[in-house]
Structure formats: C-alpha cells, structure tokens
Amino acid sequence: MKLLVILLFSGLITGCRGNSSHNLPPKLLLVSFDGFRADYLQNYEFPHLRNFIKEGVLVEHVENVFITKTFPNHYSIVTGLYEESHGIVANSMYDVITKKHFSDFDDKDPFWWNEAVPIWVTNQLQENRSSAAAMWPGTDVPIHNTTPSYFMNYSSSVSFEERLNNITMWLMNSNPPVTFATLYWEEPDASGHKYGPEDKENMYRVLKEVDDLIGELVHKLKVLGLWEDLNVIITSDHGMTQCSKDKLINLDLCIDHSSYTLVDLTPVAAILPKINTTEVYNKLKICNPHMNVYLKEDIPARFHYQHNDRIQPIILVADEGWTIVLNKSLPKLGDHGYDNSLSSMHPFLAAHGPAFHKGYKHSTINSVDIYPMMCHILGLKPHPNNGTFGHTKCLLVDQWCINLPEAIGIVIGALLVLTTLTCLIIIMQNRLSVPRPFSRLQLQEDDDDPLIE
Q1: Nearest of 124, 91, 95 to residue 111 by alpha carbon
Q2: Cα torsion through 163, 167, 168, 172, rounded to 10
Q3: What is the chain's pLDDT, residue by residue, as a tens digit (453 residues)?
Q4: How far is residue 61 from each of residues 67, 84, 264, 340, measured CA to CA in Å?
Q5: Pick the CATH number of 248-334 from 3.90.180.10, 3.30.1360.180, 3.30.470.30, 3.30.70.270
Q6: Which has the closest alpha carbon to 354: 31, 23, 8?
Q7: Which residues touch 191 (CB under 8 Å, ≥6 apart)?
Q8: Omega before 354 cis (within 30°)?
Q9: Which residues are registered as beta bridge partners of 68?
Q10: With b meaning 16 or more CB within 10 Å and e meaning fewer, what string describes 18-31?
Q11: Residue 291 pairs with which residues in a beta bridge?
Q12: What φ, ψ does residue 140 adopt, rounded to 5°?
C-alpha cells in the first residue's frame, strides 16, 4: 500500500509540473565553480548556496575521475566517460604518432576531443533544439564538426556577469530554443592554488565572492522568469589540498632530465622515456617514498587510466600534499590531481528545478553519473558511458527510489504484517478445532444399557 501511495503521489506531482510548463521542452543549465572542494560547505558560510540547496537537492560528495584535473574532469561530467575512454587524459598531453601537443593554451584542435561526444553536441543535433556555453572547457572547439549554436571563446578576463548575461539571453531569446547551457567560472580554483585551502582568511573572502555569484545567478533567473522552469546544476571538477615546501619530490635528484620527456607535471607526472623504459622506471621507482611509480600496464584498475595511447609509458603519482618538481621551488600552495579516492579531491553537486526534489540530501555519486542524469532530464538518448543512472534516481521527481533504510523498514513492516496475519489464522483455526465441552448423554428407549451405572 505504501508503495502504491508513493507511486501515485509521484505521478501526480510529475503530471502537475508537466502541465505548469505547458509541455515546453525541458531546459538545463550546468554550472561549474572550478576547484570547489566538497567540505568547503561545512567549513564556511554560504547563505545563497544554502538557500539554493534548501529548495533543491544536495549531493555531499561527488567522486570524480583520475586524474583529478580540470580538463579531464570537465569532459567526464559532460560525456559520462572515464579519461581513458574520452581521451582528455591530462591538462598537458602529447601524441607520439602525430607529434601533437595539448595544453591549457593550445586546446582548440578537435583531434583531442573527438574520441567522445559531449552532451552539448548531442543536444545540438536534435531537431528544434540548440545548445549554449559560457567558457566550459571544450565548448569553443568544433567537436565532430559541431559547436554549440552560441558560445564564447575562452578568456579568463571575461567577468562572471558578462558570462551570465550571455547565457540568460540565449536561454530566453533563441530560435530554436536553447535547452542545454553551460557556465564556467575559475574560482575558487585559482585562489586555492595561490593561498592553499587551509588559508582560512583568504579562502573565506574568495568563497564569499563565489557565494555572492551564486546569489547573483539565482536573482537573475528569478527576475527574467526562468527560475521555476529551468533545471540548474551547480557542481565542480575537483577539490584542492594544501601543499608545503617541506613536501617536495625533486626528480633532478633521481634521474638525469635528458633521459626522458616530461609531458605533464605534478601531482601526476607523465614520463616519456628517451632511453630504455625499464632503466628510467627503475631509477624513478626508488626516487621518493611519497611517490608511486607505475608502468602504464601496471596502473591500478580502479583508476580507469590505462587504455589510451595518450597515457605515457610511466606515470608518477604523488601522495596527498606532496609536489613533484624539477627544482627545489614550490610552484603553488594548493593543488589537485591526486588520487580520486581522497575526500579532499571531491567536489559537491547541488541542483534545483522541476526535475529535482526539494530539500533532499544524498551522500555520494560518481561524476560520470551526472551525464546519464542530464540526458534523462533533457530526453536525450545517451551515448555509451561509464555512468549509472540508478545512482541519481533519488534526486529526480519522476523516478521511484527507495534508499536502504526505507527498504529495510518496508521489508520489516511487511514481515510484521505477515507474522501478525499468520498468528491470527493459527488462533482462529485452533478455536474452530477445539472439541465441545462434555454433556450428559441422552439415552433413547432402544439404546443398550449404559456401561457405566
């Protein structure tokens, strides 16, 4: 009975919401605040974000993909793929066959992005729909010969206000309508690198600014009449951890730099040997106890970081808080890229809109689970991916979901009901089968004499 009530109630809510939007196609805005570590929510005040969460859902921890850097994780969010599958395996890459290089400043070649199909391309190719983007990584690249109908070439000097103004204008005034849009902002990542996440004074100031931007976002959507019908997801690509000049791994003390090419550096370094791979590996293996050294074929399976030609023959993974350097200087006080099982590397996810419950909290999902959820909201057929839609069902109003405590409660309740009914049946049967009390025999005239006088 409880299950029927839940299903009926969910159906009524979904039907009412569908009618209120006059059957318009669903719209989704995906927002990333780079480097927003999950536990910032517990350690700092976020009045605007808290109000957003109060009216929507919160996922306290999102386990992202390895390596926990900006380009790879942003592409995993919008493709649902591990890095070895979508091909953006680092912020700096080298392809040995084509001799091409990829970096933060040279990322516009579709060659690097075409191993996957991001959600804005899928949405863009639907009839009567279009996509828009304000500087989300990859949106200014013609992936599979397709860009969003509306996008901004990346420039960190463009203000959040200008990015937001463009996005809201495109959401309101485009034909065909923009049904999927992305918005990216560089903070608190930039300040996390500069000050380190343990610098409470500076991070308080920066995170207050981020919260004010969230307040500005919500206010703008309300003023323009977008708030009630637009689904909004706020998340991030990774967290941040504190680094120290006392935790340096100096490769120059272990191996001659002329014997290898450093494709990507710290805290996951990609090594392309110029001489015998085994010789380079053996030297690096004993370099520092706070650094794991893997041949490509021995990278742990849990990283899902092995089966791609862009992953170099040797990978170095520093312990949390340790920095791989070529000299003795510390480049930044905060960093990310470390093992994705570390809580300091995890971002969060908050969402609001007609597709989401109100006031619901969930403990954890994987970043690759976000993609199938977004496809479901938009009514898109997802490309093959590593995500699990079932992990996000509890966030959505049109999905039936029972969490473990509720499931246990229902099972126990059902057992109690069955036990009670069984006991009642047994009692009733016993009552019916009890013999009537003894009564004196009434002898008929033709009966034999009684045996007992």
Answers
A1: 95
A2: 150
A3: 444 444 444 444 444 444 344 578 999 999 999 999 999 999 999 999 999 999 999 999 999 999 999 999 999 999 999 999 999 999 999 999 999 999 999 999 999 999 999 999 999 999 999 999 999 999 999 999 999 999 999 999 999 999 999 999 999 999 999 999 999 999 999 999 999 999 999 999 999 999 999 999 999 999 999 999 999 999 999 999 999 999 999 999 999 999 999 999 999 999 999 989 999 999 999 999 999 999 999 999 999 999 999 999 999 999 999 999 998 889 999 999 999 999 999 999 999 999 999 999 999 999 999 999 999 999 999 999 999 999 999 999 999 987 656 667 667 877 777 877 877 787 777 776 655 554 444 445 454 444 444
A4: 17, 23, 27, 12
A5: 3.30.1360.180
A6: 23
A7: 202, 203, 206
A8: no
A9: none
A10: eeeeeeeebbbbbb
A11: 318
A12: -100, 20
Query: Contact 67/90 with Cβ under 8 angstroms?
Result: yes
Distance from first CA to last CA of the chain, Å, rounded?
64
Q: Catalytic one among 70, 147, 168, 235?
A: 70
SS3 144: coil
Q: Is 251 helix (H, G, I), strand (E, B) or coil?
A: helix
User: Which of 89, 28, 35 has the alpha carbon at shortest distance from 348?
Assistant: 35
Domain regions of the chain by residue span: 27-81+116-241+339-395, 248-334
Tokens of 101: 């290089």
Query: What is 12-37 written as a DSSP string?
Result: HHHHHHHHHTTTPPPEEEEEEETT--
What torsion, rounded to 10 degrees, do the Cα atoms 395, 401, 404, 410 define? 140
CA dist., res. 363 & res. 394, Å (int): 11
Report the C-alpha gap between 267 and 319 in whole angstroms: 8
**Residue 182 is among the residues annotated as catalytic for this protein:** no
How many Cβ atoms are within 10 Å of 148's Cβ, its own excluded? 25
Contacts of 74 (CB under 8 A, 6+ apart): 32, 136, 137, 138, 184, 237
Contact predicate 382/80, CB 8 Å = yes
CA distances from 146 to 115, 124, 131, 447 (A): 14, 8, 11, 108
pTM: predicted TM-score of the whole model, two decimal places: 0.86
Cα angle for residues 218, 219, 223 (degrees, 5° grid) = 120
CATH class of domain segment(s) 27-81+116-241+339-395: alpha beta
Identify whether the C-beta of residue 79 lies closer than 8 Å to the C-beta of residue 382. Answer: no
